[in-house]
Each structure stands twice: as structure tokens, then as C-alpha cells.
Design goal:
Its EC number is 3.4.-.-. Strand 2 and strand 3 form a beta hairpin. The chain is mostly helical and 464 residues long. The chain has a domain of 225 residues. Helix 12 packs parallel to helix 14, helix 16 runs parallel beside helix 18 and helix 21 runs antiparallel to helix 22. Helix content is 65%, strand content 3%.
């Protein structure tokens, strides 16, 4: 799937993005990053986050492209939450989250990009942080705690109106989570500039507002997104007016890449039945055929999965999700040579492709080749220390190194990282304390463990 439109545009409108980020001190930036990481861990622990490298990569690529239009540094991360509600949120430090419901309700990638750009604008303009005065000195960490509490409350109860806090927190929630009208309009305006600069159709932001507005008239409650980002008729008309002032960006009527992403999201979030998939697959729909194959892999029916995948290959034989699904079918059947043959060349041709390379590492682990797996995965944890999927593979690979004197220490270290970023801070610290005892005769490793243990213990003191 293309991560941005390639159309050239001849008119370059004057952008007016306030340079908020460049004026904040290093200390504030570090504090915001710690808050973003803390909320990342809490969200991983308390919400149904989907750990899926392919889906994460698709969305991260688009996010990165929009982020490149801003002054923001490397973000804490992007998480996908398995929730049919149409919602997205952003936290200081650059933690972004999207619900599967948002992906499924959008009609094209530009509409998703519009929501992403809006959330990025909230962070780039530091809307949370600038509201601190109204927060009576309780600071960003308290705000982060209320954010997580509200998100979890809305998740625990299927009713979209459940994000209600008691006592004094209710007033704080009302003040802090419902952005001011001016902040919403600023996020719309600047977000639209970001998405346009990244090559997405700015009309799609206005389109999605209208789609959601029509959807709310058919149900008895508002989506969560409406509570935290109040929509008014004025905002909708302003968005359309602003989009009309920008040069046109052509949208493709049917983007097969987005159709696959949308269908895949439906399957892995269990919002698509086998019968529904079959009806669409029988019409020769590539996304549905691929979705049906993924559905059967998840059911453990590898024969039916292979039949659906073979039909999909006739339509398109070069999609990365075909490679990943075929590899999963072979792994499910314990055909390890076939699994390796399927994924190895594509992964090596695209060493930066996380989904393909983590799948290759999984194959090496299944084949009992831990060093080959670790060589691959190390690149990804070096690039992103919060990569839970990668740390789990490192742990599995280390466990296979029967001859290594550091086997138990490494298993504990890698498990600690996976636990820590999954929000299980106490278990992570226990694992590192155990690793420290086992490594006491190795000065270098013992020192490394001690440094990381101190970091975790200090960050854990950040109560939210």
C-alpha cells in the first residue's frame, strides 16, 4: 500500500503552523516523553491492544509520513486497540492510538490520515500541556492518569458514555479531555495542512466529519471521539471551506491496499464472520479472499486457509500479507523448510520491513536457529526499545541457547523488557533482580542489568 500520494501539486499554499514545539525546554520534552511512555505501558496493560506487526507497520508508515511534516521528534509509538468504537487519542510525548472501529468505518486511507493528522496537531501544538494552568498545578502525570482512567472506563462498559469519573476527577476530566473549541479548530486547521503536505486529500477530513455526523443520527449515543473532540456544525463547515481553498489532490476511487487493511482489521478484531467473508470471496474480491485465508489460519484450519490463499494469489501474487499468511500456514503444518523458503527472500530484500523480518525470525526460532533469529530482531529493538513483539522473540530465541552460560540471564532480561512495555512493571523488575543475582560473576553483564534495573525502578515511581 502506498504510504502517500505521489501527485505533484503546482500551488503551494502558505502554511501557518505555530512553532510551539521549538520553544519548549529539553526538560519539558523529557518529561513529556516519560509521560507518553508511562501511558503507553498503562494502555498496553489495561486495554485490548492488538500486537500485530503487519497492521502496526501499515499505520506507522502513514503516521511517520505525516509526522515528517512537523517539528516533533521520534514519537513514543502507535498502538491499535481492538474496539468497535470510532475513536483515536494522542498523549504528550507522541503516543498515538487508533481503534479498529475507526479503521473499519473509514472509506479510504485519506480519511484515516485526516484523523491521524488531527491527533498529531494536538500533540505538536501541545494542547494538553498548555492546559496545565486549568489543571490547578496537578501536572501532566495526573492528567495522564485521568486519560488512562477515562479510556479504561469507556472500554470496560460497552456504552460510549461510560467514560465518567467520580468526584473531583469528573470536573478535571471535563476540563482536560474535552479540548476547547479553539484547540479543536486549531487541530483541524493544522492537521489539514499536515495531511495535505504529506500528499493526502484534505477533503477527506471534512468527508469523515460528515460520515460520522450522519452515523450519530442513527444511534442513541455518540462515539467516544465525539466526547473528547466535540464536533459542531461550525467545525464541519470550516473544515470543508478550508479544504476547498487547497489545491485538489486526486483520491483513487478504489484503493486495494486500503481494502486489504480494512478487511484484515475486521478479521483480526472478530468483526467479520466466515459467512460474510465467503460471500465476498465468492465474488472474487481479493481483500476478502485474503481475509478468509487469515480467518482460517486463526481457526487453525490450514487446508481451508491454503485454498482461500491460492484463490487470492490468482488475483495478486505479490502482496506482503500473502507471504506472511503463507508462512503462517506452513508453520501451522510444521513445514518449516517451506516456511523458510516462503519468507526468507522477501525479508532479505526488504531488511527494513519489520513484519516480514520478525516473521523470518519466528521461522528461525521454530527451526532451532536462535542466533539467526537474534541477529534479525536485535536491529528492531535497537531502533525501538518499546517493541513488545520483538522482545518476545528475543526471549524465545535466548531460551533455545542451551550451551550459553548466560542463557538464563538473557531470557530474564528479554522477558523483563517484554513485561515492562506490556505494563507489568513489577514483574519486569523482579525478572531483572533475578537476572542480577545470576549475573553477579560477570561484571559487564551485571553492570548492564543494574543500569536498566535502576531506570525501570525510577520510571515506575511515576505514579499515574
Amino acid at each position: 500500500m502506498s504510504q502517500a500520494r505521489s501527485e505533484a501539486y503546482t500551488v503551494s499554499p502558505q502554511f501557518s503552523v505555530p512553532e510551539i514545539g521549538s520553544g519548549i525546554g529539553l526538560l519539558d520534552q523529557q518529561k513529556e516523553r516519560l509521560i507518553g511512555e508511562k501511558v503507553f505501558r498503562e494502555v498496553q496493560k489495561q486495554m485490548p491492544v492488538i500486537q500485530n506487526p503487519w497492521l502496526e507497520d501499515q499505520l506507522s508508515g502513514i503516521f511517520s509520513h505525516i509526522l515528517s511534516q512537523t517539528q516533533l521528534g521520534q514519537p513514543v509509538g502507535l498502538v491499535v486497540i481492538n474496539d468497535p468504537q470510532i475513536n483515536a487519542f494522542a498523549v504528550p510525548g507522541g503516543l498515538f492510538a487508533l481503534n479498529t472501529g475507526l479503521l473499519i468505518s473509514a472509506r479510504n486511507m485519506d480519511e484515516v490520515a485526516g484523523v491521524m493528522a488531527h491527533e498529531i496537531a494536538h500533540v505538536s501544538q501541545r494542547h494538553f500541556s498548555r492546559s496545565q494552568e486549568a489543571f490547578k498545578g496537578q501536572g501532566l502525570l495526573a492528567l495522564a492518569g485521568i486519560l488512562v482512567g477515562a479510556l479504561v472506563a469507556s472500554q470496560a462498559d460497552g456504552d460510549a458514555g461510560a467514560a465518567v469519573m467520580l468526584g473531583s476527577q469528573a470536573a478535571l476530566l471535563d476540563k482536560q479531555l474535552s479540548y476547547s473549541r479553539n484547540q479543536e479548530r486549531e487541530a483541524d486547521r493544522i492537521g489539514m495542512q499536515y495531511m495535505y503536505a504529506a500528499g493526502y486529500n484534505p477533503q477527506s477530513m471534512a468527508d469523515f466529519f460528515e460520515v460520522m455526523n450522519r452515523a450519530t443520527s442513527r444511534v442513541s449515543f455518540l462515539p467516544d471521539f465525539w466526547y473528547t473532540h466535540p464536533l459542531t456544525t461550525e467545525r464541519m463547515s470550516e473544515a470543508r471551506l478550508r479544504a476547498n481553498q487547497l489545491p485538489q489532490v486526486k483520491s483513487s476511487l478504489r484503493d486495494e491496499g486500503f481494502e486489504v487493511l480494512k478487511m484484515y482489521s475486521k478479521v483480526i478484531s472478530s468483526q467479520m464472520s466466515e459467512q460474510q467473508l465467503k460471500i465476498l470471496a465468492d465474488r472474487g474480491d481479493f481483500a476478502a479472499l485474503l481475509g478468509l485465508a487469515v480467518f482460517y489460519v486463526r481457526q487453525g484450519d490450514y487446508v481451508l486457509a491454503q485454498q482461500a490463499l491460492d484463490r487470492a494469489k490468482i488475483k495478486n501474487n505479490s502482496h506482503n500479507l500473502l507471504t506472511l499468511t503463507q508462512t503462517d500456514i506452513y508453520l501451522g503444518q510444521n513445514k518449516l523448510d517451506d516456511a523458510l523458503k516462503t519468507v526468507v527472500s522477501n525479508a532479505q530484500i526488504m531488511p527494513e520491513n519489520r513484519a516480514l523480518n520478525l516473521k523470518l525470525a519466528e521461522v528461525y526460532i521454530r527451526r532451532g536457529e536462535p542466533q539467526a533469529a537474534k541477529n534479525i530482531v536485535q536491529r528492531f529493538v535497537d531502533r525501538n526499545s518499546r517493541d513488545i513483539s520483538a522482545w518476545r522473540l528475543m526471549q524465545q530465541a535466548a531460551n533455545l541457547e542451551k550451551q550459553s552460560s548466560l542463557r538464563a540471564v538473557n531470557v530474564l532480561r528479554y522477558r523483563a523488557e517484554a513485561e515492562y512495555w506490556s505494563g507489568n512493571e513489577e514483574n519486569a523488575i523482579k525478572s531483572l533482580l533475578h537476572a542480577q543475582r545470576l549475573a553477579k560473576n560477570d561484571d559487564v553483564v551485571s553492570s548492564q542489568v543494574k543500569v536498566r534495573l535502576t531506570e525501570m525502578q525510577n520510571e515506575r515511581q511515576l505514579k499515574i
